[in-house]
């Protein structure tokens, strides 16, 4: 079953509208609707708030502001991960960023709540905020660590000497904008009181974190908070933690003793869930004429919110990518009065690879060397900074296979040399690498006396295919047909997991399912082989085969259902676990990553600089694949994110107010079908990483975006001879450099 292109088991539920999302759990009872009022200044203090008209408006039950909000627990920095910490709201009159919640209006209907929200009158004393990254970019500090607990700076060898002595050098700055996760389903929550308990229906990625965060904020016993999140319409980092939509709904629900639901509007999603920091990255590469790198440096400056530090690990990826004796990486932060930075779609790797892989293309150009060959020449034998072997590195195979399939030999050797009508044609490529993570996860597998299996964990399916692959792993583990395995996810009352994020969800939960099934098999075999009533009596359990609902040893066979019914008339269950990578020696003894190579062809309109992606092919090595269909969908989705990063995505701050000005999908552009050609594909090499886990699989959710934007940017350079280093590459940046139209 593992490795088959099984259709999504939850597909029919979603296609027929029967999959209930956070805002749609009607079983919670008739809810009230909350609407968040946001600050209309970016920094300062509330000096007066008049809620009288709002309170008197039709249908209104409550207007909550900092003056009447219940006491809440503090953010506790001794808790290791931000997403598990309390998120107190409406705690005082100070405004920290534009759009920060200043009130919640709760009414009978959404429309009444929204109308009354307009009647809340807030007076402010406007303070002087720091909003403009460019203005404060030199006023930096050094964070203690960067995201995922990685070191802030690293140094190997003597970079300055190595770079100074290099025959060919690249020394360039690349800038990347604020980006938002932007799943289709906005962040939303419905909270229903049940006596002393709270049932929290919420769109989130990590159930365990949501429970602790709600409990910590409302100062409740976590056992009394029940998170329910069976379906999630995308997360991409914005739902790793919960936000005002959940905390304010919970506070109001407790105050009113009624179910209350709160969704963010699309515009509020651009204010209230955090975003990828903007970055200024300096990349220095020094190489010999043979293309071998002597020195690599990646120095990154980013914004952070002053109260909730977030340092994206943008320079961390290059630490494992290429060989070079002299190396340097650094991260610096400048505090701005903007929403907090947060994990967005391959945090660190995505913006970091965009720059580093553009710089590698610049180096290939300076050397007059094929960019694929340049990367192959710098293939390391061990992880060059950690000095440990790679577990399963197949970057060179990805590069060679991708080049062959794409027809890379047809790449225009000289930039701006190929033209079809009004289109300048160019090819570009890049490498991809992403670390693989493992976290503590427990799964319960239960066999019912009728021979069906139920798999339970608080793991979420954020649209990635968790229901489907866990069904496959369970079916294989117990030798059952797929339709006799049911997967039950997204409830904090189930055994806890690390959730969906960081591309770790599939392997964490699958490995745990595999182990739970193994424990059940052992228990049932021991019972059957030792039981004179079983046809398997006296057989060697080690020879057993579980298939099609039967257990077979040699010539003897018995239905699994019979064994369960005889020995466990009430059913039988076992738990399986995956441990934290820090406690697994493989993760300290090996550098465990996924790899890829991206190839893109673009056309650039010689008159208007309009850029069209014409085709794209990426080849990946990700260990074993659970389901080629869901895997391809994940990988292509990631590649398309990269296209967006290269050409479209950019949130723009008004430096006067600290507001993001393009707060909707009309102004914040992401690739749509019209932007992406039909000729796009992801190919995965056969693989099995025996160091990653017992199933040989690694995460695939984010490796697709790593480097894919650089392949597009490099194709734009190959088409035009113009290098734009300020992402995204929009027309006005490209147009002035375009070659003059031939007569
Ligand atoms: Mo991901 S940015 O860890 O959801």
UniProtKB/TrEMBL annotation:
InterPro entries: Ald_Oxase/Xan_DH_a/b, Ald_Oxase/Xan_DH_a/b_sf, Ald_Oxase/xanthine_DH-like, AldOxase/xan_DH_MoCoBD1, AldOxase/xan_DH_MoCoBD2, AldOxase/xan_DH_Mopterin-bd_sf. Residues 16-128 form the Aldehyde oxidase/xanthine dehydrogenase a/b hammerhead domain. It holds the Pfam family MoCoBD_2. Coiled coil: none annotated. One of its GO terms (molecular function) is iron ion binding. This is Oxidoreductase. It comes from Streptomyces violaceusniger.
